[in-house]
Amino acid sequence: MLVTLLVSLACLGWALHGVSWSELLEDIGELDWRWIAAGVAAQVLAYVFQGWRWSLLLRPVGPASTSKATRGIFIGLFANEVLPLRAGELIRCFLLSRWSRIPISVTLASALIERIFDGLMLMVGLFFSLHYLRGFPLSRGQARGIGILTDSAIFLAVLIVICGAILAVAMYWREQALDALLDARLFSWAHVFIEDLHRIGHSRYLYLSALVSIPHLLMQILPIYAVMQAYQLDEGSWRGAAALMILLRLGSAAPQAPGNLGLFQLLSTLGLTLFGVQQAMARRFTLILWAVVTVPLVIVGFIDLVVTGAKIGEVHREAQAEMRARQDELTRT
User: CA-CA distance, 171 to 183, in Å (whole number)?
Assistant: First the structure.
């Protein structure tokens, strides 16, 4: 956690270096707030699509409604903004497990399936984005950065395929997965886990949830494009917004400080400079973009947390305790 916070602070310090706060205030005053409102609405709607996708994915296992799944996602997003190391992923899985009586091992696996869906689409989008970026005149350092991104994309693609293959064994070859354990009857939680994954894998809802991944990711382009238009950024385009979204989504997978502070600003500044935006302008634009895509999620997540009557610290501790109980059960077995 300490290393993560230090790296995030270093990234934030670089991104804020040389920012003219008076010019930033002028930029905010000149924004087209109609585009900002559209961007905020699109950002919230994107995660409603994710809630729908999650409920479809779990439908063969238990009654996880779209409203409960969406509420869990927004509370998890709120937790990501106030707790380090993306604790919201565990919290949302724990909450949906408690609300729907689905084992937490299954909700965690379903979240991993979601990440595989997203990862496969992001890999495809990243290669198209890299092709798009090569159309700009690049310095030697920028070309080296593109090469690093390409190598990273290949590594992530291999990792996603491996994770997908492991889950596919559990979903489609149930008996082989159970036989791989020393004694499947001893692993009662693992037996339930594999049986539920088998049901997910043999349901049409798996493919429907994969299709919903398309609008979920496409909706996340809209806030970036809307802020580009509100800012009257000459270099703003749909392809540029898509490339920046993919870069930011890949960066968000790494453990980092609360609110994606630091890495978000670093990646978006570097991405914009690749599009030809002046670095000083890119630094200011990045701060506005971060506020538009983050603050609405904090507000909605906080409202959902208040409605549930829970406290984020208590929920986090309960989720960690549940995971430790699972680990202890495995150790005893």
Answer: 19
